[in-house]
Amino acid sequence: MGAIKTVYFDEKTRVSVSKFQIIRENGYVREMKLVEPRIDEPTPWFLKSQKGKYIVSGIELKPIFVDNETIKEFENEDKFKEISGETIPIYLPLLTPDTEFKESFEYEYGLFLDRLEKINPKGAFGLPFHPERQDISELEELVGLNPSIMVIRFPRLDKIKPETLIDKILEIRETLPSNIALYVPKTGIIGFNTLLIALGVDIIDDAAPYLSALEHFSYHDHFLQPSVKSMQEILEENLEETWRDFSGLRESVSRNIIWQRLYREMHVSPAFATYVKILNKRRLSYSKFRFDHTNPIYFTGDESLAHPEVRAYQQRLVERYSYPKQKPILLLVPCSAKKPYSFSRSHRLFFGAVKRALGSRRRLVETWSLTSPLGVVPYELETIHPARSYDIPVSGDWSLEEVKETAEILRKMLLKIPKGTKIIVHVSEGYRGMIEAVENEFDLLVSWIGTKPTSKEAILRLEETLKSIQLEDNYFFNEKTRHQEWIDTILAQIHWNHGNGFELPMDHLRFHGRSPKPIAVQRKGEHYLTWTENRGLVRLFPPAIVESNKQTVSWVRFEGDKISGSSVFAPGISEVSEAIAPGDEVIIFDKEGQQALAVGNAIMSGLSMKKVSNGAAVKVRKRIGGESP
Amino acid sequence: MRASPEKAKAFTVEIGRLRVISDSHREKQHTKITSWVDNHILPDGTMGKAIAMVLPTRACKYARAKHGGCSFCTLPSDNPLNPSDEDLKRIPDNAERMFVEKSKKYSDQILAVKFYTSGSFLDPWELPIEVREEILRRFSKKVREIVIETRCEYVIKKHLDSVKKVIDPSRVIVAIGQETMNDEINKRSNNKGHTVKQFERAVRLLKQYGFRVKGYILLKPIFVSEKLAKDDAIFSAKQMIMLGVDGISINPCYIGKWTLMEMLFKRGGYSPPWLWTVLDVTIAIKRLGKDIIVISDPVAAGKDRGPRNCGKCDNSIKESLKKFSGSQNLKYLEGIDCVCRNIYENTLIAETFSSGQGIFGYNGH
User: Fold this and answer.
1) Do A529 and A510 meet the contact criterion of CB atoms below 8 Å apart?
2) Which residue among A104, A270, A393, A473 is least packed, with the fewest CB closer than 10 Å?
């Protein structure tokens, strides 16, 4: 087990307790619930000013300036009782000197921290951090004080360079444990909110619609432009538009389409387009993005080439895909609008040609669909998100960037196939660039590159090309063709989750049930795994794990030696693989990593588990060698 | 300990530097008296006018110090840098001439005269004792009340005795620019050099002599957010009233030339308070005590460099504050509304959570 040594940046960090619990994570966006005081409304929070106060489910976010008087007040335990349950205090330094007065600022902030230690805040509270004045190491120190909210104070949001804003927020997000909420105050700017939420900001407010009205800027119709209407009218428009934006954001988060929303919002103004273009150049933590959801994603422009779910897919594909055994022919075909591809008319025509050409030996053919922006989708993985559920505008034209990026994925994938495999290319005109980019490096057998690869002529050509291949006759199969196809697919899908080093016996399998219902797969009379064919989802059961070589990339090590509850909590995890994406199947091992104790699904990413110190991290599905929860 | 004390007043280096620039623009010598007429109310409720005069003294000695004096103060720049003894001796005559000129219009309504020196009236370095006494002697016959300003450190028996000699202390209002009753803000933002303790001593002594005392409150010092400024002004007023001051003057910040405040303002690190803050604070302080005379007459109200609102309601609020200050009647301040009141109320909190230095000049694009 390629154990990645987990290094916590500070022992203090690990014991720090945020009062937020992650209930769902996807990328940088987390839905969290506050447990003390209890707030059921999950993050992201969109604060709407009510008579000058920010109140979430009856709890007020209240600024408390820390001076000598404050310390005296808090010496009395009652003060905490007084504020707990009704407020989430946000402690702020009394004075906040300007950036230029570095020393004065350091003094004030230092004094603030000294006093805060005396106050010794309890419960859920917030602390300010000034990214333009403070070093990220200071943020790490702040985590030791157990805040639940970090208030990111940019002096003027509109005056910061887009690069700085994005890099600072990303840096803060990656440094902080995922269950500490980020609040960027004085926000609510139309078109800009989505960016903040996508970057992992958990709390924004509605100050901007008010302030923009003051400056005669209107948000009407989701634009940001000067208006000649009266201030009252502008204000009403702005608030209405902002609140609509907030509810749209909430929905986008729960539907996993926040990045799609971002690509839509970027067209509101050139300034926002700049943000997205810069963001697309940044490397994100792709292993935080989940694959287990079913929401379609739409790629509407070049910017979606860098959609983190695309990047996550490509990264995982190159890392974890292994070419199936006994497939001497690789057929490259174009993608189809219908998903999964094999349901489309074009793919049925291609498979028809394969069947006519090779008959029962068609199982010797592996099929990859070439597509933008994903690059390559092997047949076995076509039901996996996002391959199953994306859509692109079909114009037949590919941009240079698209060609370059997808060709690179194809190149990396072709390096994985065994020597001697015959590669047949049967694609439409649009793929020419992609094929030309790799044709010098690999020996390609071109069946068709041109318009209408589904024409009668093209299909005949494919048949002839396949027939022309001389196959050796030393292939031996235990299984029927159809079963073999299933086994290859299941194995590829297991590798998708556990890495291609994970091996388990796949002989003597018996399949019960019929898609779209989950198919129960038995081996030696025991329930071995459950396969949801139409979602590309394989769930391993204890016998499969026991029989496997346990070389998974999706592992955690559990502190104790027996799993009792239905969840493994973050503090119980001693080490964790960074490769775990939220929703992935995870095998829970003992402290030494020798014995598998249980199997379950990750509630948060491995990267988050590393730093988070409370809340459920893995939902246990089956315990190994014990009754199940 | 994270906070090392030597850094506490690091910003004063900049004030000192700016003060040198400011002083270099000061006229070496002049004898001009700037003067205007204010509304005035006496403790018995008599309403009338007061003539305010800025006397061309040497101006504040504290501002001449290496640390540059108060971070917001631009007043000394209007005074002569180095007036001759003869010039200083001419002040009583000039002031009298100015008084006669100004009072023509108002004849018998003039109740008081206010002497501003851009420093401390009681500081003998600024204004020689014999000149000071001469001024007080002459004007004690002309008006019912005289207002003078001073820093705490000149409130000592020697000077009070000299004043008492020429005028009945109950007719003299000694105004002290305490600015805030929070020592931390005074030390690390205003660079005031006053402590609450000094102020308490000064007030007690003045009261012993029978002087009337007015406390100045600075609304929204640098490094302080609008909400804190609001809270602090009200807190300071409460404390001052507990000490027994007779009046409170609310002085919202405006951007004075060559001040640290101006430097911050120019790069977006500070903006003057909203007029709503001024209004709210004035009402809240007046409600603290009926007998307390509350003066709130913001300088540069509605201007870019002064306290302001959306632009539409600025003038009416300014006028209302003037009327209130002259009458002490809260009815002038009640029921004022504007769209921007809604904006103000609902963004103050976000302003507090963000770095909190300014709302105006915000462009969300």
Assistant:
1) no
2) A473
Tokens of A278: 């810069």
| CA–CA min distance A105, chain B (Å) | 9
Q: Looking at the partner chain, which of A52, A61, A190 has a beta carbon nearest the beta carbon of B346?
A: A52
Flag whether B361 is in a domain. Answer: no
Q: Which two tokens stand for residue A527?
A: 């329930």
In a domain, B221, yes or no: yes
Of A295-304, B95-104, B222-231, where does mean pLDDT reach its minimum? A295-304
CA-to-CA distance for A542 and A535, rounded, in angstroms? 22
Q: What percentage of chain B has pLDDT greater than the value 90?
A: 78
Which residues from A are below 8 Å from B182, CB to CB? 67
Which residue type occupies B348? L
Q: Residue B106: is its pLDDT beyond 90?
A: no
Do residues A511 and A486 make contact, with C-beta atoms less than 8 angstroms apart? yes
Which of A65, A88, A152, A183 to mutate: most B Cβ within 10 Å?
A65
The structural domain count of chain B equals 1
d(CA A618, CA A603): 5
Kindly list the distances between the CA atom of residue A469 and the CA atoms of A365, A403, A451, A465, in Å, as whole numbers in the listed order. 11, 29, 24, 7
Contacts of B362 in chain A (CB under 8 A): 156, 158, 186, 211-212, 214-215
Structure tokens at B168: 């009945």
Cβ atoms of residues B114 and B147 within 8 Å:
yes
Q: Are B274 and B308 in contact (CB under 8 A)?
A: yes
Mean pLDDT of B324-345: 93
Please count the other Cβ atoms lying within 10 Å of the Cβ belonging to residue A590.
Answer: 17
Residues of B in contact with A51 (CB under 8 A): 345
Q: Are A454 and A428 in contact (CB under 8 A)?
A: no
SS3 of B51, please? strand
> Chain B within 8 Å of A546 (Cβ-Cβ)?
no
In chain A, count of helices (H) and strands (E)? 19, 31
Residues B265 and B230 sit within 8 Å (Cβ to Cβ): no
Nearest CB to A63 within list B340, B342, B352: B352
Q: Does any CB of chain A come closer than 8 Å to the CB of residue B13?
A: no
- Nearest chain B residue to A187 by CA distance is B350
Domain interval for residue B56: 5-355
Give chain A positions within 8 Å (CB) of B14: 101
> Beta A567-569 vs A526-532: how paired, if at all?
unpaired
pLDDT tens digits, residue range B3-62? 888 888 888 999 999 999 999 998 898 889 999 998 899 988 889 999 999 999 999 999
In a domain, B338, yes or no: yes
A201 in contact with chain B, both atoms CB, cutoff 8 A: no
Q: Do B1 and A110 touch (CB under 8 A)?
A: yes
User: Closest approach of chain A CAs to the CA of B2, in angstroms?
Assistant: 5
- CA triple A149-A155-A161, angle to 5 deg: 105
Please provide the size of chain A in residues.
Answer: 629
Q: Does residue A12 surpass a pLDDT of 60?
A: no
Average pLDDT, chain A: 89
Cβ atoms of residues B213 and B246 within 8 Å:
yes
Cβ(A612)–Cβ(A571) under 8 Å?
Answer: no
B31 within domain boundaries: yes
Nearest Cβ partner of A67 from B182, B227, B264?
A: B182
Print burial letters for A417-442: b (CB count within 10 Å at least 16), e (below 16): beeeebbbbbbbbbbbbbbebbeeeb
Of A54, A155, A271, the CB nearest to B269: A155
Q: Do the beta carbons of residue A602 and residue A573 sit within 8 Å?
A: no
Residue whose entry in the numeric block shows the structure tokens 């000294």: A114
CATH of the domain at B23: 3.20.20.70
Given this model, what pLDDT does residue A627 score?
A: 58
